[in-house]
Design goal:
The protein is mostly beta strands. The protein is about 10% helix and about 45% strand. It has one helix spanning about 5-15; strands at about 1-5, 25-30, 40-45, 55-60, 60-65, 80-85, 90-95. It has a four-stranded mixed beta sheet with strand order 3-2-5-4. It is globular and about 30 Å long.
Length: about 100
């Protein structure tokens, strides 16, 4: 399992969520949405403090992470978070 947050995506979250250096952002499994891995589930994101982070990466001074109880969603895969300049939106791809 691996988490990759590209710099341009981290910058976008920093601006959109009014994040400051040292803030933490939790990536979590939620009901609904267009998930590519498990039908009926998708990934959400929120500003939060880690309790039991298993996957993590610090980019642009922001700590992005997934808690132990949510990593089953990306088990044996890579989660890449990028920013699509053309559509001006963040993409979360599990492959």
């Amino acid at each position: 399992m691996n988490l990759i947050v590209e710099q341009n995506a981290a910058r976008w979250y920093k601006e959109q969520m009014d994040l400051s250096e040292g803030d933490s952002v939790r990536i979590f499994v939620r009901l609904g949405g267009c998930g590519s891995v498990h039908p009926g589930l998708s990934l959400g994101i929120t500003k939060d403090e880690p309790r039991n982070a298993v996957l993590s990466q610090q980019v642009e001074g922001i700590f992005f992470y997934m808690e132990e109880d949510n990593v089953w969603y990306v088990e044996n895969k890579e989660l890449r978070i990028s920013f699509d300049e053309k559509y001006e939106e963040v993409k979360m791809v599990v492959a």
